[in-house]
Specification:
Layout lengths: L1 E4 L7 H12 L8 H10 L8 E7 L2 E9 L12 E7 L8 H15 L4 E6 L3 H5 L4 E8 L2 E9 L1
Antiparallel strand pairs: 1-2, 2-3, 3-4, 5-7, 6-7
């Protein structure tokens, strides 16, 4: 498995858009797969935020993670954000998610970021094991979530 820039593999954009819609569509019901295609395409950068990394096994995309300027409309003062960490169901529990988090943290530091944020409805323990700390717990988009942060 290798982790590379989405900018070098834009043919994966439709797959990522489908994953995001299936996984988080309940949070953003107005976002169709077509809208998500456009949003994902905007993150196909190498040297600026927003940026997306993809995990590739052979010629198949198996996971992804994004670095976004903002990912939570009720916290516009916090930036930037680790967002959209997703590993294909058939490839979970193999360390891919952990590798993607480490890679986006490294990319963030390369871009001069010294602190990252994220929110998660259900994976607080996963991130805590990787050095993230709880900032707050809030209700966002009708869902209880944990806002976390990490100094790089």
């Amino acid at each position: 498995m290798k982790i590379e820039y989405l900018a070098d593999h834009t043919h994966f954009i439709p797959t990522l858009a489908r994953w995001f819609h299936a996984e988080w569509g309940y949070l953003y019901p107005e976002r169709t797969v077509e809208i998500l295609n456009g949003l994902v395409a905007e993150r196909a950068n190498r040297d600026r935020i927003p940026l997306t990394l993809v995990a590739i096994d052979g010629d198949e995309v198996v996971g992804t993670v994004c670095l976004k300027v903002n990912d939570m409309s009720i916290r516009p003062e916090l930036a930037p954000w680790l967002a959209c960490l997703y590993v294909d169901e058939n490839h979970r529990r193999q360390g891919i998610g952990e590798a993607l988090v480490a890679a986006i943290e490294k990319e963030s530091a390369r871009l001069g970021v010294n602190k990252l944020y994220l929110f998660t409805p259900s994976e607080e323990k996963f991130y805590a094991k990787r050095g993230w700390s709880v900032r707050e717990r809030v209700n966002y988009l009708h869902c209880d979530v944990t806002v976390m942060e990490k100094r790089l």
